[in-house]
Structure formats: structure tokens, C-alpha cells
């Protein structure tokens, strides 16, 4: 093989199996800074998110794509971004990500970002939809009765899932992964729906955090026999971190292993090793290092290396978890390619894999595993 794995990884068209739409229009400087972190807190005076590990990567990797010198200042970067406008910045940075297909979670702040069709037009790439279970339940809650909730949700899920390649649960952030792994009884679902709907009628926001209903919608998704994406670990400011450890999913993985559903563990940081063990032990558990790779920037190689420790190579996927900010797609892709190239080049140099294996594994990790998991071709 004349090329290094790093060169192969740099050129491979990727399937981004977990991401969101890009922001439409031009973001203000304040919005850019907010979208560039998972934290709700602003950076202290004299610093900015461009001093975070993601921001450092933006100034190194994205700056030249916007005709700026590498390592430009935050002020220079934001000024140039504003000059070019949102559409041009998105076009340049999404093209640089080298993504051939995006699988989009359409259930989070959908009004501010592109739909799958809009992203397909913007990039020329294929797009697919992932349905977020909690958002779907919240959309049918107004006008539902407690006794009618289960049927109404079934109908809504069948309709929404017909055009989607998978679904997603955020039970990690709404409750924790330490939920009762058994499906709830119908009477428990009706009683829980009654509590939730009564609270909504009394003025509470229609935010699904009722554990019985979270389990119910998750188990309904199991019956679809499609991939179910589950957020794990880092990736949201309102988490109780230790309850997002995927070790808590062991019982649910046992309970679902012969159902035909696939459990796609997203983010996984800092529990990448726990996720990798589950991916080795269970035939239907997969993992990625999305979100965290972008936010760990120059240090992200460690995360990708951990994802390649014990999980079978046919269970590890690429994803950016980009939301809104085109820099997240560009940096997520660039950092992941760099890390995979470095790790596999070491294996190649140590003669632990041959050139044909190296080619095959890079292709599997970057796109082939997603094709198989989601039945894309
Ligand atoms: Zn995510």
C-alpha cells in the first residue's frame, strides 16, 4: 500500500450517523459562541469559546477554509464569518467535512435549523431522518386522554418511523440510564399518562420526563426493529453524569438482544470503554465518539483510540453530533479522520494488520458500519 491509512482516512466519504441540521441564515457572534459549547455558561472576560479545545480547532482547521490564517484570533474569525454570511460559511465547511450522507435527528429545536431536504439541497449529500421519541410524544400530548395516549403514540410512531431510518431516545438526560429495563404494564402507562397530561393541563411544559412513559416509548421503538440511538455520557448541560454511564444499560441490552432492535450508543464520553465492552458482549450494541471528539479537539485522538480497544471493528461508527454550527461538522470529521488514521497507521507499522485490512477497516468505520446498521444500501 503506497498510501498511509491517514491519507485513506482523509479522503474517505463519511456517513455521519448522528447529527442535526445546520443553522439557517447568519448566526450572531453570541449565537456562534453558544452553539460552540455544550455549556450554558459564558466564558469569563478576556477569554472566549475560541480558547476551548473545540475553538482552538476551529481557528486551526476552519480559519483557512474562510481565507484566514491558521490560529487567527476569535475576533478575526467572527468578523470574517459575518462578512461571508451563514450560507457561504455553511457551504464551505460542510463541503470540507467530506460527508456523503447525514442521518439527522429532527426532534431538537427544529425551527432554527435545516430540515433533511434543505440540508440535502445545500450539500448535495443524501440525508435521512431519525425520529426523536420524546419529541413525538410531546407533540401528541395536547388533546390526548390518559386512556388514549398509548394508541395515539403508536399511530404517531408508525407514521413518523415509516420515512425514518431509526429513532432516538434521550432517556439518559430526561431520567438516567438506570431505568427499569422491563417494559411497563398497560395500566401503568395509562396512570403515568394521566399524571403527565394533568400536569400539562395545569400549565406545566409538555416535557416528557415521566420514567414510565420514557420506558414505554422506548419499548414501542424496540418493536419497530430499527436502530435506536441512545445518548450516553457527555452532551447536554442538564445531565446527572454518573446516571448516563452505559453500564446501567446492561439489563436493557439483555432484555432486547433478540428483538431485532439495534442499540446505537452515542457520544459515550467518558464511558467509551464501558460502551465498547457492551458492544463486544451484545450482538446489537454499537458505539460512536460523536460530540466529544469535536469538544476535545487536539486531545480527541485518545477517545477514538479507546473506541478501538475492545469493541469489534464492525460496531464502531463515525458521527459528528453537529448541531447548527457548520464548524462542528468540519472539525468533527477532520479530528476523527486524523485519529483513525494515526491509530491504524500504528497497527500497520507494527505489522499487526496488512494493507488490505487497513483499507477495509477505515471504510467500515467511516461508512460501511452505518450502511449495515441502518440498512442504507
Ligand atoms: Zn448527540
Structural description of this entry:
With 377 residues, the protein is an alpha/beta fold. The chain has a single domain, classed as Metal-dependent hydrolases (TIM Barrel, Alpha-Beta Barrel), CATH 3.20.20. Helix content is 48%, strand content 11%. The protein contains 17 helices and 8 strands. It has helices at 5-11, 29-35, 53-62, 74-84, 86-96, 116-123, 133-140, 149-162, 171-174, 186-201, 211-222, 250-256, 272-281, 292-296, 301-307, 326-349, 355-374, and strands spanning 14-19, 99-105, 126-132, 166-169, 227-232, 262-267, 285-288, 316-317. It has an 8-stranded parallel sheet, sandwiched between helices. Helix 5 (86-96) runs parallel beside helix 16 (326-349). The chain is globular and about 60 Å long. The protein starts with a helix and ends with a helix. The model has no long low-confidence stretch (mean pLDDT 96). Zinc ion (ZN) binds at residues 18, 231, 235, 266-267, 291, 321.
Topology:
Blueprint: H1 5-11, E1 14-19, H2 29-35, H3 53-62, H4 74-84, H5 86-96, E2 99-105, H6 116-123, E3 126-132, H7 133-140, H8 149-162, E4 166-169, H9 171-174, H10 186-201, H11 211-222, E5 227-232, H12 250-256, E6 262-267, H13 272-281, E7 285-288, H14 292-296, H15 301-307, E8 316-317, H16 326-349, H17 355-374
Parallel strand pairs: 1-2, 2-3, 3-4, 4-5, 5-6, 6-7, 7-8
Helix pairs in contact: 1-16, 3-16, 5-16, 7-8, 10-11, 15-16, 16-17
What are the low-pLDDT stretches, counting only 5+ consecutive residues below 50?
none
- Please write the CATH class name: Alpha Beta
Order of strands, widest sheet? 1-2-3-4-5-6-7-8
Bound molecules: zinc ion
Number of helices: 17
CATH 4th-level superfamily: Metal-dependent hydrolases
Rg value: 21 Å
- What would you call the structural class? alpha/beta
CATH topology: the name is TIM Barrel
Major sheet: size, sense and barrel closure? 8 strands, parallel
- The helix fraction, in percent, is 40-55%
Strand content: 5-15%
Total separate domains: 1
Beginning-to-end CA distance, first to last residue: 28 Å
| CATH architecture grouping | Alpha-Beta Barrel
Amino acid at each position: 500500500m503506497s498510501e498511509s491509512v491517514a491519507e485513506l482516512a482523509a479522503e474517505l466519504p463519511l456517513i455521519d450517523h448522528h447529527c442535526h441540521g445546520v443553522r439557517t441564515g447568519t448566526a450572531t457572534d453570541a449565537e456562534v459562541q453558544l452553539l460552540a459549547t455544550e455549556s450554558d455558561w459564558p466564558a469569563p472576560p478576556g477569554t472566549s469559546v475560541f480558547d476551548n479545545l473545540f475553538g482552538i480547532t476551529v481557528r486551526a482547521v476552519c480559519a483557512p477554509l474562510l481565507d484566514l490564517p491558521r490560529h487567527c484570533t476569535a475576533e478575526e474569525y467572527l468578523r470574517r464569518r459575518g462578512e461571508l454570511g451563514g450560507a457561504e460559511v455553511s457551504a464551505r465547511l460542510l463541503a470540507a467535512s467530506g460527508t456523503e450522507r447525514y442521518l439527522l435527528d429532527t426532534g431538537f429545536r427544529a425551527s432554527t435549523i435545516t430540515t433533511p431536504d434543505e440540508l440535502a439541497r445545500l450539500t448535495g449529500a443524501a440525508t435521512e431522518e431519525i425520529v426523536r421519541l420524546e419529541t413525538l410524544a410531546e407533540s401528541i400530548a395536547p388533546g390526548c386522554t390518559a386512556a388514549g395516549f398509548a394508541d395515539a403514540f403508536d399511530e404517531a410512531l408508525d407514521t413518523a418511523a415509516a420515512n425514518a431510518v431509526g429513532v432516538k431516545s434521550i432517556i439518559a438526560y430526561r431520567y438516567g440510564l438506570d431505568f427499569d429495563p422491563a417494559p411497563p404494564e398497560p395500566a401503568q402507562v395509562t396512570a403515568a399518562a394521566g399524571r403527565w397530561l394533568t400536569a400539562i393541563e395545569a400549565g406545566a411544559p409538555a416535557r416528557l420526563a415521566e420514567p414510565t412513559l420514557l420506558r414505554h416509548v422506548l419499548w414501542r421503538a424496540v418493536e419497530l426493529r430499527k436502530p435506536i440511538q441512545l445518548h450516553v455520557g457527555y452532551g447536554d448541560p442538564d445531565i446527572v453524569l454518573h446516571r448516563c454511564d452505559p453500564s446501567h444499560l446492561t439489563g436493557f441490552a439483555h432484555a432486547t438482544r433478540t428483538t431485532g432492535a439495534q442499540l446505537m450508543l452515542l457520544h459515550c464520553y467518558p464511558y467509551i470503554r464501558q460502551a465498547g465492552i457492551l458492544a463486544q458482549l451484545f450482538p446489537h450494541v454499537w458505539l460512536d465518539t460523536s460530540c466529544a471528539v469535536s469538544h476535545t479537539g487536539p486531545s480527541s485522538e485518545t477517545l477514538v483510540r479507546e473506541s478501538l480497544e475492545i469493541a469489534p471493528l464492525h460496531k464502531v461508527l463515525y458521527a459528528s453530533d453537529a448541531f447548527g454550527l457548520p464548524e462542528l461538522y468540519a472539525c468533527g470529521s477532520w479530528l476523527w479522520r486524523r485519529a483513525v488514521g494515526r491509530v491504524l497507521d500504528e497497527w500497520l507499522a507494527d505489522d499487526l494488520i496488512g494493507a488490505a485490512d487497513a483499507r477495509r477497516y477505515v471504510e467500515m468505520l467511516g461508512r460501511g458500519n452505518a450502511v449495515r446498521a441502518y440498512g442504507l444500501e
